[in-house]
Specification:
The chain is an alpha+beta fold and about 200 residues long. The chain contains 3 helices and 10 strands, in the order E-E-E-E-E-H-E-E-E-E-E-H-H. The chain has helices spanning about 70-75, 150-165, 180-195, and strands at about 1-5, 10-15, 20-25, 50-55, 60, 85-95, 95-100, 110, 135-140, 145-150. The protein has a 5-stranded antiparallel β-sheet. The chain starts with a strand and ends with a helix.
Length: about 200
């Protein structure tokens, strides 16, 4: 299409050689869905798009339909709701932390402040530094509606349950040290060997 107008929310363009015009909404520019991307284009630019809808003589275009969907990462890596994944911190905000799920940083998710840690005193976004790894549980994943919710808190609770199942109730009590937990685990293995 050749662009003939750009507004705050959309690009209007005409299909080259056909004299049919339509709209390219900013959410269809890329999977980032950022209106700022409109600034990358100017009147008379020619861009490739896909027709995604024709309704009542109105044509809707999509540029992102020509790109790989970042949400495919979940299918490609066989990840589903309930799984724990390792993310990379991109940015700390007042209301949470933005993390990237994929190595190409195409899929950025905001982990809200109340999901950053099991203890509310540890759920401070400013303690998370860009570039650090962060394990989070997928608590919501809807590929059709393109919704994802991640929780570090839920991952910590799962880890705690796993420690209790493996090493007993004392494994998560405050004051329990890794050394103490491992000594308890190694000690129980030694006893089993001695019993044989």
């Amino acid at each position: 299409i050749q662009i003939f107008n750009i507004t705050e929310k959309a690009i209007f363009g005409e299909i080259v050689d056909l004299k049919l015009s339509g709209m390219l909404h900013y959410k269809e520019l890329s999977y980032q869905e950022n209106a700022e991307e409109l600034k990358k284009f100017k009147k008379n630019d020619v861009i490739s798009v896909k027709i995604i809808e024709i309704k009542d003589d109105k044509i809707k275009f999509s540029k992102r339909a020509l790109e790989k969907d970042p949400f495919d990462w979940f299918k490609e890596n066989n990840k589903k709701q309930g799984d724990i994944i390792t993310t990379k911190v991109q940015e700390a905000l007042k209301n949470g932390v933005k993390v990237s799920v994929d190595k190409d940083k195409q899929l950025i998710v905001l982990i809200k402040k109340n999901d950053l840690a099991k203890e509310s005193s540890d759920a401070r976004p400013e303690v998370f530094s860009p570039g650090n790894s962060l394990d989070a549980k997928i608590t919501e994943l809807n590929l059709e509606q393109r919704k994802i919710k991640l929780s570090v808190k839920a991952a910590q609770i799962d880890e705690e349950k796993s420690l209790i199942a493996k090493f007993g109730e004392g494994a998560t009590k405050s004051g329990a040290t890794l050394k103490g937990i491992f000594e308890k685990a190694i000690g129980s293995k030694k006893k089993k060997k001695e019993e044989k």
